Amino acid sequence: MQYHTQKDFRIAAYAAQGKPCPSTRLYHAPLMNVYDNTTICLGSANGGDGLTAQARAIWNEAIFDSNFSHKNHDRLIRLKSTVKEKDINRAYLRFIRDKATTGKPFYAKDMTPLGKTLDEWIVT
Predict the structure, then answer these.
(1) CA quadruple 16, 124, 52, 60: dihedral positive or negative?
(2) Closest by alpha carbon to 73, among 123, 109, 13, 28?
(3) DSSP reduced 3-state for 29
(4) What is the pTM of this model?
(5) Which of 64, 12, 71 lies closest to 41 in space, CA to CA?
């Protein structure tokens, strides 16, 4: 996650353990309520003091306690090309339920590449 006090709140994913380095390739976060450009749709979340370091707990709640009501783009996860537009939400929810039920982790093959490294993402 990147909190940019003058700009926005963004989230991306990476396929590794431990801390990422500047050359780490990023992926679209496999979460609803995140736009294609990685900014977070806060909807009616109370932003408190705005995008300040002190408000991080509020912003974390906006992500981790969200009801994830809608998709903001079609690259949440890699889907088969046969999935129709109207079925993307269902396919995504089925995928998430399967992960939750089986306890299987997300893999890089499950996610859609963002096309940026951590270093490139931070400066944009």
Answers:
(1) negative
(2) 28
(3) coil
(4) 0.77
(5) 71
